[in-house]
Amino acid sequence: MDTSRTPIKLTQDGRRVEVVGRAICLDGRREAEALTPVGRHPNRAAIWRAVPDATHMAGRVPLTAQEAAMAQAALDAARAAYEASPLAIAERIRHAADDILKLRIDE
Question: Which domain of life is it from (predicted)?
Fold first, then answer.
């Protein structure tokens, strides 16, 4: 299991936001696996009122453009490393076999 850590920022109350493996974590707890642009977020008006320079959200954590770029780069690197791992290859093979079995059952 990949345990690489990439620090992104500290919140105002001192909690660490970092990318751990394929997830963005807040103080060591998984917060999100993908970034959401604030413009597409359902609470965008409230987010922009509270954090005017936020461009992305990672779960409950607002990120600036620079922080979001760092987080996305770390997520992309972790995802690429995982996709090339034997575990990911085995998982894809298992899903393909399941799909084939579903087709045979439907016939």
Answer: Bacteria
Q: What is the DSSP letter of 16?
A: E
Considering just the CA atoms, what is the radius of gyration of the chain in Å? 18
Q: CA 23 to CA 14: how far, in whole Å?
A: 20
What type of residue is 21? G
> Residue 36: how many CA atoms within 13 Å on its side-chain side?
17
Residue 3 pLDDT grade (very low, low, confident, very high; cuts 50, 70, 90): low
pTM over 0.85: no
> What mean pLDDT is reported for the chain?
92
Of 85, 88, 83, 33, nearest to 61 (Cα)?
Answer: 33
- Closest of 65, 85, 71, 7 to residue 34, by C-alpha: 71
